[in-house]
Design brief:
disordered C terminus; five-stranded parallel sheet; 8 helices; 7 strands; alpha/beta; 53% helix; 16% strand
Length: 205
């Protein structure tokens, strides 16, 4: 395993599923540094191994995946992906509120697993930039929601990719020396709606 491999801690309470998932991750080039079937143990494993990402099943003994996600995002700098059954979509919303970057619905294809991991890593890198501006966890989660809404508007109305939408927000914040959240709020409020030669203008409406 090369030094650049993404390090993952895996928490899944079904042993056979956990073993298969770990083998799949390793075959895709990820480094599974630890795994467990208990939610309380995964919090300690994340603290001990400081992985790049943790995969959490929602239903686990000891501590459910939502509570585990909340503790992990409060105490560590680790991206979280939640694994859930289709019938648990309401729980997924709570997990996202707790700080999870994305989720994966069982059963899933290998390509979907990789896509979820890479999406979570990209989003985590984006939101890590906010930590210098917002230190309080609850406020940080509110800022995430605000930025997601702004990105959605830029994607829908200006045909930008998710990465380009975030880059636009970041560039506007840097050039105007303002927080990204403030720029995001202006996007939501129609302050950035003009488009010239394929680029979004910053003029007011």
């Amino acid at each position: 395993m090369n030094d650049a491999a993404v390090r993952i801690v895996l928490a899944e309470d079904e042993p056979i599923i956990r073993l298969d998932l770990a083998e799949t991750l390793r075959s895709e080039g990820y480094d599974v540094v630890a795994d467990t079937g208990r939610g309380d143990e995964v919090v300690d494993l994340v603290k001990a191994h400081a992985p790049d990402l943790v995969l959490l099943d929602v239903k686990m003994p000891g501590l459910d995946g939502i509570s585990a996600a909340e503790r992990i995002t409060e105490e560590t700098r680790t991206a979280v992906v939640v694994l859930t059954a289709f019938s648990q979509r309401d729980l997924v919303e709570r997990a996202v509120e707790a700080g999870a970057m994305t989720y994966l619905v069982k059963p899933y294809q290998r390509s979907e697993l990789v896509a979820a991991i890479e999406t979570a890593r990209a989003r985590f890198r984006e939101f890590a930039l906010l930590e210098d501006q917002v230190s309080d966890l609850s406020e940080r989660l509110e800022v995430r929601k605000l930025i997601d809404r702004a990105k959605g508007r830029l994607i829908d109305e200006h045909n930008l990719s998710e990465n380009d939408a975030f880059r636009f927000l970041q560039q506007q914040a840097m050039s105007s020396r303002r927080p990204v959240a403030e720029v995001a709020n202006e996007v939501i409020s129609n302050k950035f709606i003009d488009e010239t030669d394929g680029s979004i203008d910053s003029g007011a409406d």
